Amino acid sequence: MEKLMRFKGKVVVITGASRGIGRGVALRFASEGADLVVSANEDRSKDVAEEIKAMGGDAISVLCDVSRKSDVEALYDQALGRFGKVDVSIQNAGVITIAKIEDMTEEEWDLIMDVNAKGVFLCCQAAAKIMMKQGRGCLINTASGQAREGFIYTPHYAASKMGVVGITQSLAKELAPYGITVNAICPGIISTDMWAYNDKVWGKLLGDYQKGELMQEWVDGIPMKRAGTPEDVAGLMAFLASEDAAYITGQTINVDGGLIMS
Question: Has this prediction a pTM greater than 0.90?
Fold first, then answer.
């Protein structure tokens, strides 16, 4: 079968690209010919850029704290400086903490909202300014299953991810006349470092589960009976960024094996 090269000549910016879902998405776009700007708030994004180059692709890595407007503007300036355009921008950077309501600090709340909601907006804003001039573009925002249904001990995370859905819908209406689509995805239980953390902390708060036990209990509740992979998420993002999805905007799509059917 001939390899798909849907993104040859396209420039894709991905935040939170140093590991987990972001890394998987970056490698998927690179495999289909895209030029990548991989960004994170840690140096590991350089390793992802090197992986892409080893595949024969072109990529740069940029350090960026998405909660800081100056960092975000510098990210997109570097994308333009290196590649001259931005075709797809994927707002994937995200963080989580888990705590009982009596223990959750104001600093935790602010951190989660700043990265997960404000960060998505700032990146969409910077990318949209470029795409509006181009008369085309695609924005994809990573929300969460908690954008559908909040979970215990994470009200700040649920609020931030529900906010991502609101941002997505609002911007989809505003940017449609410029040929820009805006969609969000809601990953469920995906095997990543973040879910290893979730299993450990939630497991302790919910009943002192041993390592992996809580994760397995949750996976048992998924109709498809397995956790997802970054590649599962990457497949959906690649579709949304492709011409096949040109008439899809303002949508939020679950990728969770049927865990939440709404």
Answer: yes
